[in-house]
């Protein structure tokens, strides 16, 4: 008869056999398994160290490239835009460092930045209340300034039409008397009246929350740089500003001597305003630079303006992944082909040919 002691001994024997099997199995497999895992870990660590080293090298080279671009910028841009005035317009999300970099580059080229117009999110809002408010502001300002609003287009486009007509001009008034210029002088009183009217117009849009201004954007400029947002939407959807940008830029290009749209390398990918603009016919009227967050890109912004002022074609500059066709203009513009040419003269006229000489 099997008693309790037999059951107890049997159970102990089973667990003892399992323990011995586990120990023996572990001892038998410990060498090969350990060697494989150790080799794999060492290989991954080595690959990680190599990648980290390559990243550090690439970052160091990028920093050296930035330092070099900053060092040579004054020499590269000298006198490209002598006597020109530049207005900077920013969309919501634009980097302040891009604005300050372009401002410094413009100074190196001999141009002055009149000021900045920062379009606010309210300007792009689609609610009926906001749209009605923008429409009413357009009507009031246009009536006061004697401007006939375009019958087609959005209220944003009409607003830019009004703003551009007051703060932009084809001829750079600060460049009066330059060699090769065919501009006419403007009396101080007329200029003061114009600036006062422009300031009142900007104040009307600012009081409604559609824009903010810094500097003296009411002082007429002949060049425009539009700075797009820093990043594209994280969810992969199209940027709501993208569809508005092409018609706005078209209005600016029609009123100025040259218009360039500048963006950051991270904010110019698929779905960004820059990408949409480059796929639009307006890209034939304005130049685009998608790496203006870099010193080299900021220099290209100024070079692109100089080429347009001289009657050259618009270009897409920056990274090929963002749709650019070239890193920078080739050949690079020279002062004799940009600064001395009056933007009011067509490229095919004889006076332009003389100015280029």
Main sheet: strand order? 3-2-1-4-5-6-7
What is the percent of helical residues? 40-55%
Q: Give the overall form.
A: elongated
Strand content: 5-15%
* Rounded radius of gyration (Å): 31 Å
Q: Treating each run of at least 4 consecutive H or I residues as one helix, how many helices?
A: 10
Question: Can you describe this structure in just a few lines?
Answer:
The chain has helices at 4-77, 96-108, 121-124, 128-145, 155-167, 188-207, 245-255, 273-278, 295-309, 350-356; strands at residues 85-90, 112-119, 211-215, 223-227, 258-262, 287-289, 316-317. It is of the alpha/beta class.
Index terms:
357 residues, alpha/beta, seven-stranded mixed β-sheet, 10 helices, 7 strands, 10% strand, elongated, disordered C terminus
Explain this structure.
51% of the residues lie in helices and 10% in strands. It has ten helices and seven strands. Helix 4 (128-145) packs parallel to helix 5 (155-167), helix 5 runs antiparallel to helix 6 (188-207) and helix 5 runs parallel beside helix 7 (245-255). The N and C termini lie far apart (123 Å). By secondary structure, it is of the alpha/beta class.
List the helices and strands and how they pair.
Blueprint: H1 4-77, E1 85-90, H2 96-108, E2 112-119, H3 121-124, H4 128-145, H5 155-167, H6 188-207, E3 211-215, E4 223-227, H7 245-255, E5 258-262, H8 273-278, E6 287-289, H9 295-309, E7 316-317, H10 350-356
Parallel strand pairs: 1-2, 1-4, 4-5, 5-6, 6-7
Antiparallel strand pairs: 2-3
Helix pairs in contact: 1-9, 2-9, 4-5, 4-6, 5-6, 5-7
